[in-house]
Specification:
Distance between the termini of chain B: 24 Å
Oligomer: heterodimer
Helix content of chain A: 25-40%
Number of domains of chain B: 1
Shape of chain B: globular
Strand content of chain A: 15-25%
Order of helices and strands of chain B: HHEHEHEHEHEEHEHEHHHHEHHHEEH
CATH superfamily of chain B: Amidase signature (AS) domain
Number of helices of chain B: 16
Chain lengths: 475, 483
C-alpha cells in the first residue's frame, strides 16, 4: 500500500466589518427583517448602478498588510455571471484578473510557511429560506452586497490540525487588523477546502476535490479528515479521484458530490463597465500602512516587556482583539495592567461564556470595567459587589455608579482634606513621574491618578481626584 | 415651435402652461394613431406639475429656462411610480420605485413629463420595430421607419406632438432617428449625463441625450441633464455649460471631413447634402478640409461584440423571479429561467444576449472580447489624432435615408451595418450632434453629424447652432397623414 500525503488549499471568505455595503449605502448589520437592508442597487433593480465604498478597499489593503501580501495599486473589478435566486443581478462583482493582494502567507507553529496566492474583493449574495411547509423558497437580500474578501492559499497545508491552526491564526490576525468581527455563526468567516492526495515524496499534485458548506472550525477539521480518508481509500483500491465539488453534511459527517468538472460553470468573466479602476496612490497607501493596528505577535512582546503581564495571561489575551482593545483602554484610563488583565480573564471571560457570546460581541465600555476595578481596589465596594456591578454593566442594564448607588454599596467618602493630603503624599513619593509629566509625558498622569486612587482606597470619585491632581501638578 | 420658443411664450405669459399641455395632448391624440410614437400619457401627476409651474411663472420664479415645457421620455429612463417597460414584454408591468437622476433633473427644472416614448425593445434595434407596442412610423412617410432605437422620441418631436424629448444613444440611437425625422438630437460625451436609472443596454456606451427643434433646445436640455452624480461612478458632468457657448460664430473653427466616412456604401444624395452643408460652414468662416480617420472598418464588429457582451450580462437580471414577466407553471428553477426569458424577450434581444454570451465564453473571450477592446482603443487613437488637427468632424449620420418598415427585420446584418457612422462615436465616448441638412429626391430628411472631442459638447452645439442660425433646414416639418 502506497503512503499518501494530502495537499490542502483553502478559499476563505471573510466578511469585512464596514458599516455600509460595498456598492450602496445600505446597512451591513446582521439580522433584520428580511429585505429591509435593501435598495435599488443591492437588489438589482433595472437602471441601478454600483458605486464603490472606499472603506472596502482600505480594509482589503489592511488585511493584505496583516498577512504580508503585495498590494496592487491599480484595481479593476470584474463581473462573474451566473443565475441563482440569491443573486439578484445574476452577476457578482468580484476581481478575477487583477486581485488587490498577492503573495504573503502565515507561519505555522511547526515553522512551516503557508503561502497565500491572492486576496480579492467581492460582494456577498443573499440568503434563501426554504419553507418545507409551503414547499416554497423565499429570498432575503439583506446580505446582498455585504463586502467580502476571498483569501486563496496555495495547497501548502498537510492535515486537519494544520488547517484549523491556519484558520485560527488568520482569523486572529484579521481581527487585530480591525477588518472583520470573525463571528463564525453569523457567517463572517467561511472556508472551502481543496484537497488532493499524492504519494509521499511526489512533487506533482493529485486530482483535487472542492469541499463546501462547513460552518465551524470543528466541521472543517472533520471534513479534512473524512475527505482525506475517502480519497486514500479510492487510491488504495486502485481507483481514480474525480475532480468535483462536494457538499459537506454536518449532521452525517459525510460529503456528497454536487457537480463534476464537466458540469463546471462558465462564469463569462469580463471587466465591470460600471466601475472605473481604483488607484491606490502613495499617500493613500502610506495612510493605510500607518493605520494598520499592532499585530498580535508584536503586541505579545510589548505586553510581556512593557506591561509586565504574565505569559499565561498574554497568550490568552493575544488571541482576541476585542479583549486586547479593552485591556489597553483600561490601562489608558489609569488601571494597573495586571488588575485589568485579571478582571478580563476571570470575570469578563466568565460572563462571555455564561452568556454564550464571543469576544467579538463585547459591548462592555472600558469605563465601566475601569470604574469597577477602581472601586474594588480602592476599598470603596466589596469584590463580590464589584462582580455584580460588572455583570449589570455587561448586560447593559445600568452603569456602574448607578448600580452601586441604587444598591447602597458605597463605603464612606473621603473629605476634601483627606483627598488633598493623599495627593500631596503621592506627588512627594513619585518625584520621577511628576518630572516626566511636566516634561510632557501624558502617561505619567494616568499613573499618578492610579496611585492617588490606591492611596485613597477608592473612597473618592476618580474625576474629582484627577481634577485635583491636575490642579496641583500645574501649581 | 421649439422648446425654447414655447418656454419664451410661457414665461412671457402669452400662453398658459395648462394650455400648452393640453395642446400637446390633443396633437398627440390626433397623430399618435398614425405615428405610434407615444406609449403612455400620464395626466394626474402632470396636471399637478403644470399648475405648480404656472404658479412659479406667475411669481416670476421659473426653475429653469424650460420650466413648464412638456416633453417626452424614452421608455427606459426610470420615473418614480411610473411604468418603465423598455418596450418589452419582460417589463410590461414594471413600475419603478425611484427616479433616474436624469428624470430627477428634468423634474427639478420644472419640465412636465407626460409622455412615454416608444423605442426598440431594450434599445436594441435601429428602426423602432422591435417594440412590444408595435413599430413607430416616420411622420415624413408612414410606410417608413423613424429610425431607432429612440424612434418614438424623434417621431414625437418631428410630428409636433411635443417640442422636445429625451432618448438614449448606445450606437446611434439618438442621432440616427433624429436624422431620419429631421429633428436635432445630441449624444453627449460619455460621462456627461448620469446613467443612474437608465435601464442598461451596454454600460460603457450608453448615454442619455436630448431631441429638440434645434441645437439651442439641445443645449438648454443638456445643461439640465448633465452634471456629476454620486450614484454613477462613470459620470463626471461637463466642464462648462453649453447654452452660454452658443455665439452663432464658427469663424476660424477647423472642421475635418473624414474621407473614410464618405466612401463606398454612402447614398449619393446623402453625400451631396452633407458636402453642401460643408460649403455653408465654409461660407460662415470655418476652415473645412478633408482628412483621414483611422478605424472605421473596425467599428461595427467591435461595437457589436462589446455591446452584446455587456448586454448579455446587464439583461441577466430579468429572470422571472423578482419582477417582470414570469412564465407560468414552470417545473424547475432552471425551466423558470429559461421559459421566462424565452417568452419575455423578443427575437432581437435574444439574438444579442446569445451573441454576447458566446463572445464571453471560455475559449472565445480572447478571440472576440479582447480583440474588440483592442479595436476600441485603436478607434479612440484615430479620433485623438484627428482632433490634434481639427476642432470638429463633419460626416453623415447614416448611409441612407429612412428605410421602409419591415426591411431591416428580414436582414439584421444590413441593419447592423447601417450604424457604421455612429458607433465609433460611442466607442470613443465623444459628443455627436445630428442635425437636418435637407431632403433627398423622395423628400426624405437627410441628417449630418458633428463630432467633437470628449467633453467639448459646447463646441459641437455652438457649431450646430451657428449653422441653424443661417439656414432653414431644421424648420422643415412633415405633413403627417391621419390614420
Amino acid at each position: 500500500m502506497t503512503a499518501y500525503e494530502a495537499a490542502i488549499g483553502l478559499e476563505v471568505h471573510i466578511e469585512l466589518n464596514t458599516r455600509t455595503k460595498i456598492f450602496c449605502g445600505c446597512s451591513t448589520a446582521f439580522g433584520g427583517e428580511p429585505n429591509t437592508h435593501c435598495c435599488p442597487v443591492c437588489s438589482g433593480l433595472p437602471g441601478a448602478l454600483p458605486r464603490l465604498n472606499r472603506a472596502v478597499v482600505e480594509k482589503a489593503v489592511l488585511a493584505g498588510l496583516a498577512l504580508g501580501c503585495d498590494i496592487r495599486r491599480h484595481n479593476v473589478f470584474d463581473r462573474k455571471n451566473y443565475f441563482y435566486p440569491d443573486l439578484p443581478k445574476a452577476y457578482q462583482i468580484s476581481q478575477l484578473y487583477l486581485p488587490i493582494c498577492e503573495g504573503g502567507g502565515l507561519l505555522l507553529s511547526s515553522g512551516r510557511f503557508v503561502r497565500i496566492r491572492e486576496i480579492h474583493m467581492e460582494e456577498d449574495a443573499g440568503k434563501l429560506v426554504h419553507d418545507p411547509w409551503t414547499e416554497s423558497t423565499l429570498c432575503d437580500y439583506n446580505r446582498c452586497g455585504v463586502p467580502l474578501i476571498e483569501i486563496v492559499t496555495q495547497p501548502d497545508l498537510k492535515c486537519a490540525d494544520e488547517v484549523t491552526e491556519f484558520l485560527q491564526t488568520l482569523k486572529t490576525r484579521l481581527e487585530f487588523a480591525g477588518v472583520t468581527d470573525g463571528k463564525m455563526q453569523e457567517g463572517s468567516l467561511r472556508a472551502d477546502l481543496n484537497i488532493s492526495l499524492r504519494p509521499v515524496g511526489s512533487s506533482t499534485l493529485g486530482t483535487r476535490t472542492e469541499m463546501k458548506n462547513m460552518n465551524s472550525f470543528k466541521a472543517i477539521h472533520k471534513a479534512v479528515e473524512v475527505e482525506t480518508q475517502r480519497q486514500a481509500e479510492i487510491l488504495n483500491g486502485g481507483g481514480r479521484v474525480l475532480q468535483e465539488t462536494r457538499r459537506w453534511d454536518g449532521n452525517k459527517d459525510a460529503s456528497f458530490a454536487m457537480r463534476s468538472k464537466e458540469n463546471a460553470q462558465d462564469y463569462r468573466y469580463f471587466p465591470e463597465p460600471d466601475l472605473p479602476p481604483v488607484d491606490i496612490d502613495d499617500t493613500w497607501m502610506q495612510e493605510l500602512k500607518d493605520a494598520l493596528p499592532e499585530m498580535p505577535d508584536v503586541k505579545r512582546e510589548r505586553y510581556l516587556s512593557e506591561l509586565r503581564l504574565p505569559e499565561r495571561d498574554v497568550n490568552i489575551l493575544c488571541q482576541s482583539a476585542p479583549l486586547c482593545r479593552l485591556l489597553e483602554r483600561c490601562v489608558d484610563l489609569g488601571v494597573q495592567p495586571r488588575s485589568a488583565a485579571n478582571w478580563l480573564l476571570s470575570e469578563v471571560l466568565k460572563l462571555l461564556n455564561e452568556r454564550g457570546l464571543e469576544p467579538a460581541d463585547l459591548a462592555l465600555p472600558a469605563e465601566s470595567l475601569c470604574r469597577v476595578i477602581q472601586l474594588v481596589e480602592g476599598g470603596k465596594i466589596g469584590r463580590a459587589d464589584g462582580r455584580n456591578a460588572l455583570q449589570a454593566a455587561f448586560d447593559g442594564q445600568t452603569n456602574v455608579d448607578e448600580y452601586v448607588a441604587r444598591n447602597g454599596l458605597l463605603r464612606e467618602e473621603a473629605g476634601e482634606a483627606d483627598l488633598e493630603a493623599a495627593v500631596r503624599q503621592v506627588l512627594a513619593e513619585n518625584a520621577d513621574a511628576v518630572a516626566s509629566f511636566r516634561a510632557g509625558k501624558q502617561k505619567s498622569f494616568g499613573f499618578l491618578t492610579g496611585q492617588c486612587l490606591k492611596a485613597l482606597k477608592g473612597r473618592a470619585d476618580p474625576k474629582r481626584v484627577s481634577e485635583l491632581l491636575r490642579r496641583m501638578l500645574e501649581q | 415651435m421649439t422648446a425654447l420658443e414655447l418656454a419664451g411664450r410661457l414665461h412671457k405669459r402669452e400662453m398658459r402652461v395648462l394650455d400648452a399641455l393640453s395642446e400637446a395632448q390633443k396633437k398627440t391624440q390626433a397623430l399618435n394613431p398614425s405615428v405610434n410614437a407615444v406609449t403612455e400619457w400620464e395626466e394626474t401627476e402632470t396636471l399637478r406639475a403644470a399648475e405648480q409651474a404656472q404658479k412659479r411663472i406667475d411669481e416670476g420664479k421659473p426653475l429653469s429656462p424650460l420650466d413648464g415645457v412638456p416633453i417626452g421620455v424614452k421608455d427606459l429612463i426610470c420615473i418614480k411610480d411610473r411604468r418603465t417597460s423598455c418596450a418589452s414584454r419582460m417589463l410590461a408591468d414594471y413600475v419603478s420605485p425611484y427616479d433616474a437622476t436624469a428624470a430627477a433633473h428634468l423634474k427639478a427644472a420644472g419640465l412636465l413629463l407626460p409622455a412615454r416614448c416608444n423605442m426598440d425593445e431594450f434599445a436594441m434595434g435601429s428602426t423602432t420595430e422591435t417594440s412590444v407596442y408595435g413599430p413607430t412610423r416616420n411622420p415624413w412617410d408612414l410606410t417608413r421607419s423613424p429610425g431607432g432605437s429612440s424612434g418614438g422620441s424623434a417621431a414625437a418631436v418631428a410630428a409636433g406632438m411635443l417640442p422636445a424629448a429625451i432618448g438614449s444613444d448606445t450606437g446611434g440611437s439618438i442621432r440616427q432617428p433624429a436624422a431620419y425625422c429631421a429633428v436635432t438630437g445630441m449624444k453627449p460625451s460619455y460621462g456627461a449625463v448620469s446613467r443612474y436609472g437608465l435601464v442598461a443596454y451596454a454600460s460603457s456606451l450608453d448615454q442619455i441625450g436630448p431631441f429638440g427643434g434645434d441645437a439651442a433646445d439641445c443645449a438648454a436640455l443638456l445643461d439640465i441633464l448633465a452634471g456629476p452624480d454620486g450614484r454613477d461612478a462613470t459620470c463626471s458632468g461637463l466642464p462648462a455649460p453649453c447654452f452660454p457657448a452658443l455665439s452663432g460664430d464658427v469663424r476660424g473653427i477647423r472642421i475635418g471631413l473624414p474621407r473614410e466616412y464618405f466612401g463606398e456604401g454612402l447614398d449619393e444624395e446623402v453625400r451631396a447634402r452633407i458636402l453642401e452643408a460643408a460649403d455653408i460652414f465654409r461660407e460662415l468662416g470655418a476652415d473645412v478640409e478633408e482628412c483621414s480617420l483611422e478605424g472605421l472598418d473596425l467599428a461595427i464588429p467591435a461595437y457589436y461584440v462589446l455591446a452584446c457582451a455587456e448586454a448579455s450580462s446587464n439583461l441577466s437580471r430579468y429572470d422571472g423571479l423578482k419582477y417582470g414577466y414570469r412564465a407560468e407553471d414552470a417545473e424547475t428553477p432552471d425551466s423558470l429561467y429559461r421559459r421566462s426569458r424565452t417568452e419575455g424577450f423578443g427575437r432581437e434581444v435574444r439574438r444579442r444576449i446569445l451573441l454576447g454570451s458566446f463572445v464571453l465564453s471560455a475559449g472565445y473571450y480572447d478571440a472576440y472580447y479582447k480583440k474588440a477592446k483592442a479595436a476600441r482603443a485603436l478607434i479612440r487613437r484615430g479620433f485623438d489624432a484627428a482632433f490634434r488637427t481639427f476642432d470638429l468632424l463633419l460626416c453623415p449620420v447614416a448611409p441612407s435615408t429612412a428605410p421602409r418598415l419591415g426591411e431591416s427585420l428580414q436582414d439584421p446584418l444590413k441593419m447592423y451595418l447601417s450604424d457604421i457612422y455612429t458607433v465609433s462615436v460611442n466607442l470613443a465616448g465623444l459628443p455627436g450632434l445630428s442635425l437636418p441638412c435637407g431632403l433627398d429626391g423622395q423628400d426624405l430628411p437627410v441628417g449630418m453629424q458633428l463630432i467633437g472631442p470628449r467633453f467639448r459638447d459646447e463646441l459641437v452645439l455652438r457649431a450646430g447652432d451657428a449653422f441653424q442660425k443661417h439656414t432653414r433646414f431644421h424648420l422643415n416639418k412633415p405633413e403627417v397623414k391621419r390614420a
